[in-house]
User: Fold 2Fe-2S iron-sulfur cluster binding domain-containing protein from Paenibacillus germinis.
Amino acid sequence: MINTTYVLECSINGKAVAVPVPASKRMSDILRDDLLLTGTKVSCEIGRCGACMVLLDGKPVNSCLLMAYQAAGKEVTTIEGISAGEELHPVQQAMLEEGGLQCGYCTAGMIVTLTALWEKNPTPTRAEAEEALCGNICRCTGYEGIFRAVERCGLSIKREG
Assistant:
């Protein structure tokens, strides 16, 4: 029998990790089951809902579609790595203040996606936010609170700048 387990070496939330994993294991499962980073949610498991979104070298990807070996040598950022310790990231703070969450199941994926957008463009238009979130589905909020959060982030940057 061929040994299909290998050691995944990458950085997760700024920390180097070396995790023995089967070659066929998805990143979402490694994060949740092996590393106990349960903020990453799994819902559709086919890359359509965005609940499992993580940043891979700064770009949003569905971790349910990301095989472990694809993360080798890369930086993976989960929702747990978005904040700076106890201080919320501006996107997290805005989502909280604007009611951009309801049941919370999609929230981590939304925040991860919007953080990538915000890092690239701290004052996105609504159209840019809509495009960024096209891979994220929310079944509860109707998105208005989410878009208000995007606007709040942009306004706070304009005030500070």
